[in-house]
TrEMBL record:
Membrane topology, from the record: Multi-pass membrane protein
Origin species: Pseudomonas arcuscaelestis
Identification of the protein by name: MFS transporter
Record-linked InterPro entries: MFS (IPR011701), MFS_dom (IPR020846), MFS_trans_sf (IPR036259)
Alphabetical keyword list: Membrane, Transmembrane, Transmembrane helix, Transport
Major facilitator superfamily (MFS) profile domain sequence ranges: 29-435
Transmembrane segments: 25-43, 63-83, 95-114, 120-145, 157-176, 188-210, 252-275, 287-308, 320-338, 344-365, 377-402, 408-431
Primary residence: membrane
Family matches, as Gene3D superfamilies: MFS general substrate transporter like domains
PANTHER family given in the database record: PERMEASE-RELATED (PTHR43791), TRANSPORTER, PUTATIVE (AFU_ORTHOLOGUE AFUA_6G08340)-RELATED (PTHR43791:SF36)
Organism phylogeny: Bacteria, Pseudomonadati, Pseudomonadota, Gammaproteobacteria, Pseudomonadales
UniProt subcellular location: Membrane
Keyword NADP: no
Amino acid sequence: MSDAIPTDSPSFAVPADLKRTYSKVIWRLMPYLMLAFIINAIDRLNLSFAKLRMAEDILLSEAAYGIGAGVFYLGYILFEVPSNLYMQRVGARATLTRIMILWGLVTVATAFVTSPGQLIVARFFLGVAEAGFFPGLILYLTFWFPAAIRGRITASFFMAAMVAGMICGPLSGTIMTHLHGWLGLRDWQVLFVLTGLPAVLLGIIGRYWLTDRPEQARWLNAEQQQQIQAALDSEPRSSAARNGLAGALRDPLLYVAGLVCFCIYSAANTVSYWLPTLIRSFGLEDLQHIGVASSLPFLTALCAMYLLGRSSDRYMERRWHLGLTLLTAAASFSLLSVAQGNTLLSMVLVSLGAAAALSAMPLFWTIPPALLSKSGAAGGIALISSIGNVAGVLSQSAVGAIKTATGSLYLALDMIALLLVLGTLLVLVAIPARRLAPSAAC
């Protein structure tokens, strides 16, 4: 992470002393934030593995699982914007740590559901508990890092989720294979308990580790605080978004960005919640084998995120990087039905498609801050994220219904591919390059 500041950027020359200051900030904040995001991703992904066993115990159908996966986002959406606005009042440390403690407790409680209805309720409250975490982190990054280096910082942040995907499969397979019966719990119950408790612990630690803003950081001297503030103050904002949240809400591009986010999240959520089920349809049955195979798409995404983030920052170009990435994911998902019966080709396609869909997220999140003023960023980012998270409610319920009706996921993946093509058109046609200049010039 120490090389996260692109000294070769054509629009941002970094003095040596500022580079040293940001290296200090990066090593202070990013390991904690990345670990938090890893745990967050694991606590979302764990349901996809628990489903392989809990379905028999609580009589969980594919359609009910789709609703359970989707209702999480309903709770998240309802409280996302209020949470981010409240964060501006009480600070990032209080907000983010409160969220981590609550979602950890709800994850542990999910171990004790006994029916599909109870699972759906638990998932709804998990969404409520977690509301504001992701947009809060994106907003928090804008408090510390200027736009010219935010592409690689954001990519590093999302790479943590890919690490979680690589870890979660083997970890879940191992827990469910070897810890069945621990404390009298079934394998999937143990999984929820052991993946929920770390969030509670990390939330407690964060109360003492995080700092809201540079001027409050006692671990920086006065000169370093001034350097960071000067870099942030010199960051231009789009002239069409200078009237705070009210002005942002009147800007059509805010809603265009939300629709792009919707398309991306439809694909990313499908990968997160249905990947083990899809891999099992390739012919793998052993839980540990499925866990290992499910880590491959995330490993591919980890490499893609780093390369795309570096390239996007180097050339200060966002739209075409994002558009071509979305098209790659669409092509890969649409070709999966052609590869039926060929396990190796299916794994290559799902790895490429999942990697592209997941890599699109950090590329996308370099765009909204350039469309928003500082005063409108908190509510605007949360609103864009809320529109995107509607995909969690609609797309996952649709995927579950299609899987129940057809017995396979291929038609659902074709639907996701079409949404990705739509997202590409919106990025390249509806978001003009001039609106991203100069902080993310295309």
